Every structure is written in C-alpha cells, then in structure tokens.
UniProtKB/TrEMBL annotation:
Stretches assigned to the Laminin G domain: 1009-1183
Subcellular location, record wording: Secreted
Disulfide bond positions: 794-803, 835-844, 873-882, 913-922, 951-960, 996-1005, 1156-1183, 1206-1215, 1223-1233, 1244-1253, 1263-1273, 1285-1294
Organism field: Athene cunicularia (Burrowing owl)
GO CC annotations on file: extracellular space
Domain CTCK: 1300-1375
Gene Ontology terms describing biological process: animal organ development; axon guidance; negative chemotaxis
Name this protein carries in UniProt: Slit guidance ligand 3
This protein's UniProt keywords: Developmental protein, Disulfide bond, EGF-like domain, Glycoprotein, Leucine-rich repeat, Neurogenesis, Repeat, Secreted, Signal
Keyword Signal: yes
Any single Pfam family the record assigns to this protein: LRRCT
Domain EGF-like stretches: 769-804, 806-845, 847-883, 885-923, 925-961, 970-1006, 1187-1216, 1219-1254, 1259-1295
Domain of life assignment: Eukaryota
Amino acid sequence: KVKSSVVPINTQCSGETYFSKHVYVPVVSCGFEKCLLFVNRMCLFFFFLPLFRDLSENQIKGIPRKAFRGIIDVKNLQLDNNQISCIEDGAFRALRDLEILTLNNNNITRIPVTSFNHMPKIRTLRLHSNFLHCDCHLAWLSDWLRQRRTIGQFTFCLAPVNLRGFLVAEVQKKDFVCSGSQSEPLSCSASSITCPSACTCSNNVVDCRGRGLTEIPANLPEDIWEIRLEQNLIKIIPPGAFTQYKKLKRIVLYGNKITEIPQGLFDDLVSLQLLLLNANKINCLRVNTFQGLHNLKLLSLYDNKLQTISKGLFAPLRSIQTLHLAQNPFVCDCHLKWLADYLQDNPIETSGARCSNPRRLANKRISQIKSKKFRCSGMCFIPGFNTDYRSKFTGKCFMDLVCPEKCRCEGTIVDCSNQKLTRLPSHLPEYTTDLRLNDNDISVLEAIGLFKKLPNLRKINLSNNKIKEIREGTFDGASGVQELILTENQLESVHGRMFRGLTGLKTLMLRSNSISCINNDTFAGLSSVRLLSLYDNHISTITPGAFSTLVSLSTINLLANSFNCNCHLAWLGKWLRKKRIVSGNPRCLKPFFLKDIPIQDVDVQDFTCDGNDESSCLLSPPCPSQCTCVDSVVRCSNKGLRMLPKGIPKDVTELDLSNNSISVLANYTFSNMTQLSTLTLHGNDISSVPEGSFNDLVSLSHLALGTNPLHCDCNLRWLSEWVKAGYKEPGIARCSGPDAMVDRLLLTTPTHHFQCKEPVDISVVSKCNPCLSNPCKNNGTCNNDPVEFYQCTCPFGFKGRDCSMPINSCIQNPCQNGGTCHLTETNKDGFSCSCLLGYEGERCEINPDDCEDNDCENNSTCVDGINNYVCLCPPNYTGELCDEVINHCVPELNPCQHESKCLPLDKGTRCECLPGYSGKHCEIDDDDCVGHKCRHGAVCVDAVNGYTCVCPQGFSGLFCETPPPMVLLQTSPCDNYECQNGAQCIVAHHEPVCRCLAGFAGQKCEKLITVNFVGKDSYVELPSAKIRPQANISLQVATDKDNGILLYKGDNDPLALELYQGHVRLIYDTLNSPPTTVYSVETVNDGQFHSVELMMLNQTLNLVVDKGTPKSLGKLQKQSSVSLNTPLYIGGIPTSTGLSSLRQGADKTPNGFHGCIHDVRINNELQDFKDLPQQSLGVLPGCKSCNICKHGICRSLEKTSVICECHPGWTGPLCDQEIGDPCLNHKCLHGKCMVANVAYTCKCMEGYTGMYCDKKNNSSNPCRILKCNHGQCKISEHGEPYCECDPNYSGEHCDRENLCQGEIIREVVRKQQGYTSCATASKVPRLECRGGCGSGQCCVPLRSKRRKYFFQCVDGSTFTEELERHVECGCSKCL
C-alpha cells in the first residue's frame, strides 16, 4: 500500500518502490514536479513507470492538476477502491498514451469538462460505483460516451432521483438540468480537503468551536494533537470518529447535545490526556467507554443526565488526576455504592457530585456517604445472574435503564404516583416489575406500545385517576402482568378488547367505577384471573355467561351494586350456588320484596320480569368506531378513510363520508341501505363508480360527489344518465379526465360525450384493480379482495397490509422457561433462544433428567429438578445424598413417651416403658381399674400404676369397705310428690320442684312443648278447631339445615312457612294468580333458637323473625285460607297429601324439616304436643339432650349430639361455670356495653361510631377532608385530624410503604440444659425483619451466620454452643 508521508519540496527520490497488488516498479531519480502527488495528508510519488500503474485500494482522496506531469509512457492506470472525490481540471492531460483508465468504487460526483480530451488512445474507461450527479455540468460526458460506445460501459447516474440507475450515455441532453443555485460550474481543489471549511487548522490543532456543526468533521489531518468542537449542535458521534488520529492529546466536546457515547469511540487513543464531555445530555456510559485511556489526566462529565455509573468505568484511567461528576441526577442506590468507595479511596472528584435520589440521600455528597446507605429495595433477580437486572446490562447502554422524568426509581419499582400526569409515560425502564401510576389525572389509556418493552412487569397500579377510556391494544405485550389496579376511576363500560394482551393477569381491581353492565365479552381472554373486584359500581344486570371465560376465578366481589333481581339475573343465582367461589353474598336492590336478600338465596321462580323488565345491558345500535352516530345519522368525515367503515347500521338515513381518501366503490358497497336519503361523498379520491352501485338506495334524494377526480369515459356514462334522470346530484361534481372532459359538469354534459377513446391512466385503473399499482412491498403477492379491496400474501419476515413491516419473531416470547429470545436470519423461524441453566432445546422446552448421573446413596430415590436433583431418603437415613444414618433417639426425634427409655436399633428404636404404661411408644396409660376392689358403689379413679377409690358419703377405708354409723331416716317433701315424664324432684326452699327433661314443661312436667324432627317424612298435625280467621301463630326454631317446611295449611289456597337457603320464606298461593312470596332478611340456620311469628289480620299476612321488622305480603285478594276447616301441619306434610297444591319452582323445597320446634303458640295459647293424635315416625320429644345445658341453650349437631351456647357470664361444656362480667372495666366511651357470649360490644350513642364509640359521626367531622390511604383518621386534642397508619406504612396520608429492613435487638438467650436453666453470659444481637414488600412477598431473613456463645447455668456448670443469627433482611416468599 502507498503510505502517507511528508516530502519537502526539493526532495529527490530514488531506489525501488512497491505499490498495491505487489507490482514491482524500479524507481529512478526524479524532481518534485515529476513525482509529487499531494492527496489529503499524503505525498504519493509517481515515478517513471513503463506501461502499468496499479494504485487501487489505497486512501487517495483527490487528484491534483499536475499529478501526472512528466509521466508519458503509462498505458494502464488503475485507481479503483480509493476515496477520490475531487479530480482537478487537466489532471490526466499528460497521459497521451493512456489506453486503460479505471476509477471504479470511488466518491466521484463531477468530472471537469476537459478531463479526457488529451487521451486520444483511450479504449477502456471504467467509472461504475461512483456518485455521479447528472446535472447540466455532466452533459458533456454523455455526448463523449455516445461517440465512444465501447469505452465507458457501466457508467450510471446516482442523482438526481429521476435519473438514478440510468446509463449516462443514454440520458438525453434536455434531461441534464441545473437549478438556479447550481448553474455555475463547481470546481474542487485536492489540497482543500486537508482541513474542513468550517474549521481552522494550525500547529496540529483543529479548531471548530461554535460553528453550528451537527456532526464531527471528517478528513482531518491525521497528525493532529488537539480537536476543539465545543459549543456546537452535535447530537451523535459515529463509531470510529477519532480512530485514525492516534496522536490526539486533547478532545473538547462540551456544550453540545450528545446523548450517547458509542462503543469503542476512544479505543487506542493512548496519548489522550484531556477529555471534556461536560454540558451534554449523556444518560448512560458503557463500562468499557474509557478502555485504553491509560494517560488520561482530566475527565469532565459535569452537567449531564447520568443516573448511574457502571462499576469499573474508571478502572482503565491509571493516570487520572481530576474528575468532574457534579450536576448529574444520580440515583444513589446499591448500584452506586462502588462509586462512593472509589471516590473515598481516590479523592480526585473536585466538582462536588451529589445524590438526587432517593429522598433520604438527596443533595448529599457521594464521596461522604457511608457504603451501607446505598441500598436497593424491590430488587428483581433474574435466574442465572448473581446481580439484578440492571447490573446485567452494565456493558450496554439503553434508554431502558433511565428513570422517566417526574418518576422515582428504586430497585425495580418505578413510582410515578401523585405527579399530575395526564397520560402514560412515553418510556419506562426495561427492568420495571412494579409500576405505580396512581393518584394522577390520566383520563385515557392510549395504545402506544408501552408495555411491549417491559418483559418483567408484574404489577400496574392506576387507581385514583380519571380514566374513562382504555384504547384497544393498550396492554399489548403485557402478558407477564399479574395484578392490574383500576380502582376509583370513571370507567362506565368495559369490554374484552380493553384487556387484550393481559393473558397472565391474576388480579383485576375495578372497584369504585361507574360500570353499569357486565356483558359476556367483558372479560374475554382473561383466563388466568383469580381475583376480580367489581365492588361499588352501578351494575344492575350481568348477562348470562359473563364469567364463563374466567376459568381460574376463585374470588369475586360484587357487593355495593344496584342489582335488579328480575328475569335477566336469574342465571346468576344458580351460578353463585353452583360455583365454589368466594363472593361476599351480593344482595338484590330491586324489586322491593327481594331487597337486601342475597342473590344466591332467591328461588329461581322469584326472578320475574312482570312489570320489571329493566336491563342496563340493552345494546345500543351499532356504530363504526371511526364515526359518530346520532339516531339514524352517521358522520364519518375527515377520518382518513380509504374504504367504507364496517358496521354502518342498515337503517341509516344520512351518511357523511366527505373529505376522506376513499377511491373505490363497488356495486355492493351500499347494499340494503334502503332508508338512506342523503349520501355525502364530497372530497374523496373516486375516479370511477361501477354501474349499479346505488341500486339499493331506493330512498336516496341527495348525492354529493363534488371534488372527486372523476374519469368521465364510457364507464361513467350510466352515472351521467342516472344523475340526469333523478336530479339527485346538485350539479357540483366535475370531470377530471380524459382531457376532452376536464372541468365538465356530470349533470349537464351530454351523455354521448362519455366515450372511451384513449388508454386509461394506470392511477385510475388501479382504483378498480389495485394490484396493478403493485401495493405489496418486499416481493409480496397481491390478490384482489371484494371486502378489503386487496390483500397481500407476505414473504417470510414481513407482515402488515402491504408487507412493509418486518416481523419481530421474538414479540410473542417463543422461548419457554425464562429463555431469552434473539433475532437471527440464519434460523428458519427468525429467532434463537438462550436458555437458563437446566433447560435445553430449540425453545428451551426440555428439562433434561439430572438423575441420569446422580450420587444418591442407600437405595434412596432421585427426583429430577431444574439443573439439580433431590434425594428422597429411605427410613433411618438423612443428608443431602442420604448418606447419614438417623439416630431416632435424639430429643428432636425420640418417639418414646412418658419418660420411657429410648434404645436405638439398626432399623428404628425400642422403648422401655415405666410401670403403668404400655404400647410401642409407651403411649398407653394402663387402666388399673380393671378388676378393682372398690366396694359399696365407690368410683374407681385410675392413676399411674395404681388406682384410687372415691367413696360414697359416709363410707371410708382404702376400698370404701367401712360403712357409716347408723342414723335415723329423714323424710323429704319429694317423697309424696310425683313428677311426670321422667322428671327429677328436687327440694328448693323446702318445697318440691320438678326438674323437667328436655321438651317438657308444666308444674309437674306434664306438657310436651318441644319436639325434635329427625325422620325423612316427619310432621306434627294440629286440629283446625284451634285456629280462628284472625290469628297469631308463633314458634321457635333451631336447625343447621338450609331448607325445610316449618308450617303448612290448606289445600285449595295453600299457605306455607318454610326455610329456603337459610331464610324464612312465606308463600301464599291462590291458584288463580302467581304465588305471593316474602323473604326474611334474617337467616336462621345457625343451630340456635330463633323466634318466628305469623300474624293474620284483615286479609293481610305479616312475617316477623327474631322480633325484627315485619315483612308483609300486602293486601290479599281474599281472606287467608287459615279460616278453612283443614289441618295445620308443623315440621312437614303427610306423604299422602303431597305438595301438589303448592306450586314449586325448579328448586323444589324438600318436605321434611330436620331440627327442633319449641314453644308453638296459637293465639298465645301454648300447644301441648302430648295431647295430640298419634304423630308420624321421626318426631322425638325434647330437643335431643338439651337439658344438659345448665345456663345456656343447646345447638343440635347431626342426629345424636348437641353443644351448649352459654348465656352471658357462664362458660364450660355444660354452661355450669360462672365467669366474671365481661362488661367490667369496659372501654365503651360514648355508648352502652352489651354482653355478647364471653365478650362484649359497644352500642354507640347518637352521633358516635367506632368499635369503642370513640369517633364522632357528623357532617362537620374534620376527618371528612383527610384521606388516609393505609390507616385511620384520628382527631388530636386540638381538634385537628391526623392519620394513624397501619403497620408497614407511614407518611402524612399513610401512603408511603415502609421498606423491608432489619432492626437489631440485643437480648439474653436462655436454654434448658437437662434439669437446670442456662443463659448466655452476654446479650446476643439478632436482626428482626420489619417492613412491607410488594407482589405477595414478605419481609423475611435472607442470610444468617453461626457463632459460638458462652452459656452459664444456675448449678454452676458452663458450656459453649453455636447459635444462628440473622444478618440480612429482604423480600422473599412468605413462610
């Protein structure tokens, strides 16, 4: 290669020289005029060479006028593959014998007119692969080449655009044109390219200061020492911009707009001593940015946009003396800890660099902050990496690592809350896992592709905004998001298109919006959602199947909505009963008779639309998304439409499509629009209208076709006739072609003028056959389509309507199990996967069996994991590889009970029992009362290895063998007092009293007032004579069943009182009209006794449960059937009677009632079941064995057992143990203490609320204006409101989550060593983890250490033991 050199003017040269391609050339002595060629810092020597010169593949940039003077014998000159951009006029004048000249692959744009005039013998000229500008100054070359057809083949124009690719010889002279500014011929000077025109060059310094430059100048002198480029407008520095300037000592670039330093920019600049990059917009530096700058002494990065710096950035700077880092928005988290250590060890930073974030470190000098203050929270760890996500990319430089303006980034949490944002941020860091956008002013979520770039995002909080609309595609790419919070916004409707892309969503919070309807497409595509909250909306109707796509749903909150329980909601009651989903029991608001009744408790026949057919889900008429519709008027003007929008209602009367880009109308475009009267197509791109396009528009009265490029040939003759026949076009539409028809009116031009005489322009024909204009890019195949106009079949790697969009094969995350996708052209699928450790396969889908080569011992079982395996040990073995024998007699594993001795065996243990115990593990306390010797009815009490006799009154002795002394018999008041029905007589105040068995009452327990229904078809019949037309029936019920008949009366107009889903339901059926029904709000299926009262007065029926608000059936059409002479059944109905007279729905109530009925009164007369006729089987006296509860009531369990619910002040299994009054020392501040079992509740006075009635409840409460996000509002002594925060939260509004951190606690550790107590000689420090974590994680210990501690015992002994103590806290899986 020809190398650059500097040759003095009078230099003589001799010897031999080698040029490229190893051409051997003898060199003779020559003067400067014969051998010097000055080309951009090169002195190239041309010597007297016979015949041949090959100077290809050098760095020649220009050819001076006298370059070849004196060289007359050269016949072949090759200058290919250089950088020649300037050929001076007359450069080849001396080469009169030249036959071959090649200038291929250079930068030639213009060639002077006389360049080739003095080469009469030229027979080959090659100029291909240059940048020839074919304007008026190159017209001579076209003539010259045409006259010599074989000489200059393959010479092409590159500019202007209209001539690009044309052979210069074939371009007509008239096409070589110049604009006004280019009319003067441009000359060039080969010597001028040594220094840029905008700069000055002297003494090895290039000075380009303040010249408005937007890029680094090229072609600078190679031997420069300093370049000054400050105060310009440079944004981008290309890679290698300084590579060839090896002698540079100083680079000054401050005061520009540089955002990024390309990789390798300063490589090999070993002489560089000063580098000023201050006052730019640099936001990231690669870790190897300053690699090789071993002699750099001063580096200024002052006043840039750096938030973090990669560890090791300054390591190559061995000679650095001064460093400027101030005025950068540094985030002082764990990633910047190294910088503080570096600056403390190397006090070279003189500008005072300070932290901007987090707040606790804001404005503090980095070099003065202790290392432990640099912390990260919310870290996102990637499997396979020892550091977090951001550290993984320290060798790269992305905008994805920069925190958005106005937001706070710590760890992987990006907090943009409470910043008055009105739209989503334009970019977010790629490492984001938790995005907080709550408490802003966002009203519309736009589809800007934001979430496609956030592969690690798991949670989005958009609560407390003003969101009214979520655009389709907003969440595209957010497949990893698991929690979306949209609480407290203004959404009125939701549909599945809003949530497209959220395929992995598990929690969706839509609480406190204005949603009125849930359709069956609302949650389409959300198959992973487990928790859905629709609390506090305006929902009155949910269409059937609305939740069918939520196949993973386990919890749904539908409370605080306005449900109208009519026929449209009947399916929801069944669905709630059928699905085992936590729902919170949503309740009806309408109709009035079902108000406050849980939806799942309402019988299907009571969901009726009689007079109540309202539905918030009635669909409004369809309207295209690009249009607005008012009644039957559809307006789609100025929407950039290229074809008719889909979904135009068929009953449209006015359609405005003006000022769009519609170019094609088909004969089916307006089909079936029979009511359309006004059609506006003004201002489109319509050239032709197919015949019959308006045939279906039978009501059309006005057609606007103005400002369209109508091509009025024979194909449009029918339209002319059609317009003239009906005068529906007002005479505005004009023709744009053919030439003879330009500007003629469609309405007034005679029909015979519409003729086809000349070929139609392709731009017109392509509107009817779009494929003629080749709309498919990148070799796509075009097919005409009747609906879409045309469709493109795209080749591999492209997509879109016209195949113009390259496919990113990685966008669908094809790599499984956490693999990383990389785009590649070598793979047939367009991508390849980098798998995490433990996975393999093309898509990382294979988890290889790690058990194929395992080290599990002692016949243990190997279980494959991910890049590891686990050994499942057989009995008696433990350890990671099951190589340790278990000693089952150690205290933690000892199975022997009752202080028996444990003996270890080869397989297991053996227990030696103490006397009185037996069993394999000495777990059985032997019953020594078997064969006891206690006498006179004494009770034997078992003891350890013996027994004790508890003697009756008066007896004594070891076995109670000694009788009492003789005494005179005494008489008792009970001796002649007969208690009935098995009752016990007791003496109270010297009077006999009968203690009745369960279910009996009366002075001598002669009345049966409680019965227990246990049979399938059991019932009790009361004679009709006891019932009057105006009656009152009351009873008490105890059951834990949901359904059953309590009372039944009448056959013609039956009346029933029954249990339905735990509620009491009263039904009156006149047979001539629908049954009249009323439900109790209260439920009675808790096993306790509840009072039920039925009042009949003046043709009204009222139901009262537990003394609550009466529920009335209203005025009946006739007197209730209770006045008829028919029996009254309690607890069931005879099977012979059946239930045919009472109309039943799909959920038929079973006949039988299981439970207790007590204290039945008719007109206040207590009913005695003992005097009734023979009852059915399965009716037992009493309520099982409820008489055992001394101070309480019984609760029945199944058929044979009960439990006691004690009255206040009593406890114990039989309610026979007195306890203190729960209301003693109560805390009710402004209210009355009410006993509730063994506790109490506060009944507040008017104007107070709260658990202890300690909060005022009035409109002037100061807490009304204070919002406590995670806490409760309290009133101070001065009447001021303040927030008392929940655990893990702080701040004025309890809105700042306390970060997970450890608190050191020092305390003495105590241990029991045998029979003595021991304690550490000094306090042992331990770390207690406190604070909150997101994403369902807990604040737990992450790392611990073991250390030996000295114990002292109370008996004087000592020992040393290793204790484990935690040393680091963090967020991890909850234990």
